[in-house]
């Protein structure tokens, strides 16, 4: 089943269940997907929908950090709930050990030796972990491996 179809089915189910949180999150995601389809002028593939989901998830995580800094527990709780709904549509996340193994493999393939080669490593690595790992964690692991 395509990801867009799954979102639509889950939206209908959330309406029936009167699950306001899930319904609002799915509506926001579907809106973002529709906007992206309009911008690209075509229907999005599952990979492209995953990119939109990843962007939405990153926005929620950034908001969560800001809310926690500001001591807004009510908004932080809401952001956490939205993140949990979005995570249902993401592929299984890689562990830090799996990311480290991939980073080591890419460093060997590219011959990277210093932080100057970070762009080369990230460029080769990100397509392999797309949607399955947080970019900040990947960045941290690559920096540690290259130092």
Automatic annotation (TrEMBL):
One of its GO terms (molecular function) is carbon-nitrogen ligase activity, with glutamine as amido-N-donor. InterPro entries: Asn/Gln_tRNA_amidoTrase-B-like, GatB_Yqey_C_2, YqeY/Aim41, YqeY/Aim41_N. It holds the Pfam family YqeY. It comes from the Bacteria. Transmembrane segments: none annotated. This is Uncharacterized protein.
